[in-house]
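Morning F.,

Quick status update on the modeling queue. The single chain you submitted on Monday has been processed. Sequence for confirmation:
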Amino acid sequence: MTIWELVAVLAAGVGAGAINALVGSGTLITFPTLVAFGVPPVTATMSNAIGLVAGGVSGTWGYRRELEGQWARLRWQMPASFTGAIIGCWLLLHLPETVFETVVPVLLVAALILVVAQPYIQKWVGGRSTRSGDLTPPHLGPARIAAMTVGTFAVGVYGGYFTAAQGILLMGILGVIVPDHLQRMNAAKNLLSLVVNVVAAVTYTLVAFDRINWWAAAAIAIGSLAGGFLGARYGRRLSPRALRGVIVVVGLIGLWRLLA
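Structure tokens below.
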């Protein structure tokens, strides 16, 4: 990669870190950017997962106050995300690259559809939050805990294999099952996505060190670290419509590059 391509990847990392802190799906900026610069899809996925850990840390830290009182749920969800991520990483490393190259465009289209539908998901979740009242933390029965854990596990598998839009998937699942406030669910989403990315980063580093583009991973890490702080602190002032527009445009460019 040239110096200007690395600068572009760093800038994409800033955007991805900020968007992940707010809504999830920042991978749809960094992954297509890497692919557009000629990085093979599997290498791009592994490098991207490693780089975005830094942004996950800063975004989770920025939302740390909203995590208070959520341990009753997170003690079930974090192991589910961890286990699911391991399975997803195993699938990425053991299935043929041709399978990934075939499946990724489908996953990318599905993730872009989720990005477009995200305002409606959040609007519905916000409505549930308003109707539920001030439940801090909300009480969940065994059936809801089981459903929440299974759903979190499934998103963990997806995230370990292809991380794009896992945050939006988590928000949708939490919105269906958990009657809580939107910002608290967003904080939980940031932490659970971080768990998945840490598992993926450690796994890829240990077993596929030579397949990672470390320059790209470093550029994404630096950018996403700053972007996570910016997203947590200032991102709520930005237009969500503008953020989604950027994601969709860059995602379509990456899709075109994958299919070309």
